[in-house]
Specification:
Largest sheet of chain B: 7 strands, mixed
Shape of chain A: globular
Radius of gyration of chain A: 13 Å
Oligomer: heterodimer
Radius of gyration of chain B: 13 Å
Largest sheet of chain A: 6 strands, mixed
Number of strands of chain B: 11
Helix content of chain B: under 10%
Structural class of chain A: mainly beta
Order of helices and strands of chain B: EEEEEEEEEEE
Number of strands of chain A: 11
Chain lengths: 108, 115
C-alpha cells in the first residue's frame, strides 16, 4: 500500500465550480501535508501546506486534514481555466511522498 | 531567476549511452533532492543531499545511477548504460531544512527519452 493515495481523476468541471480533490494516507505519524500544482511539462509548484487537523485557507484554496479518517482534501472555489493542472498531495514520509496526482480541467 | 534550474530540459539518447543532468538549487538551500516522475504518476524519491553529503538513496536508484553534489551547490545525476525503462522526467528540488516543516521547491525537470 502506498503511503499516500490519491483519486486519479481526471476531473472536468465548468468554470466557477467548486472543486474537491482528495487523498488518503496510511502513516499516522504524518504531521503535515502539502499540495502541489503541476502544469504540463513543468515541475510541481508548492500550492499550500497544512498541519494538524482542520482547515487552512488561502484565497480561493482551502486545505483540510481529517486525522481521524486520514483524509486530506483541497477545495478550489470559483475555479478558473488557469486552474487546469495536475494536483499532487504529499506527505512527509522519510522523504516527501507524493500521491499519483489528479488531473483537473476547468472548462470555460 | 532565483528558482531551481535544471539542464537540459530534454534529452534523447540511445539505449546503452550514458547521460548526465545538472541541477542548480536555490542559492541558500542546503538540501537537494532528485525525484523521477513517469506519466500519470507522482514524483518518486531517488536521493537527497544535505550540503555535499548524500544522505539517502532509494531502492529505485540502481547501480547505474550516481549523483554528486561536490561543493554543496549544484548537483549532477548520471545514468550509465541507459535502458528504455529509464525514460522519465527527472526532477530536482531544493529546500532550506529548518524545523519540522520542510518545503521543497522543484525545477522544471529534465525529460529523458531512451530509444
Amino acid at each position: 500500500q502506498k503511503e499516500v493515495e490519491q483519486d486519479p481523476g481526471p476531473l472536468s468541471v465548468p468554470e466557477g465550480a467548486i472543486v474537491s480533490l482528495n487523498c488518503t494516507y496510511s502513516n499516522s505519524a504524518f504531521q503535515y501535508f502539502m499540495w502541489y500544482r503541476q502544469y504540463s511539462r513543468k515541475g510541481p509548484e508548492l500550492l499550500m501546506y497544512t498541519y494538524s487537523s482542520g482547515n487552512k485557507e488561502d484565497g480561493r484554496f482551502t486545505a483540510q486534514v481529517d486525522k481521524s479518517s486520514k483524509y486530506i482534501s483541497l477545495f478550489i472555489r470559483d475555479s478558473q481555466p488557469s486552474d487546469s493542472a495536475t494536483y499532487l498531495c504529499a506527505g512527509p514520509a522519510r522523504q516527501l511522498t507524493f500521491g499519483s496526482g489528479t488531473q483537473l480541467t476547468v472548462l470555460p | 531567476d532565483t528558482g531551481v534550474s535544471q539542464d537540459p530540459r530534454h534529452k534523447i539518447t540511445k539505449r546503452g549511452q550514458n547521460v548526465t543532468f545538472r541541477c542548480d538549487p536555490i542559492s541558500e538551500h542546503n538540501r537537494l533532492y532528485w525525484y523521477r516522475q513517469t506519466l500519470g504518476q507522482g514524483p518518486e524519491f531517488l536521493t537527497y543531499f544535505q550540503n555535499e553529503a548524500q544522505l539517502e538513496k532509494s531502492r529505485l536508484l540502481s547501480d547505474r545511477f550516481s549523483a554528486e553534489r561536490p561543493k554543496g551547490s549544484f548537483s549532477t545525476l548520471e545514468i550509465q548504460r541507459t535502458e528504455q525503462g529509464d525514460s522519465a522526467m527527472y526532477l530536482c528540488a531544493s529546500s532550506l531544512a529548518r524545523g519540522q516543516h520542510e518545503k521543497l521547491f522543484f525545477g522544471s525537470g529534465t525529460q529523458l527519452s531512451v530509444l
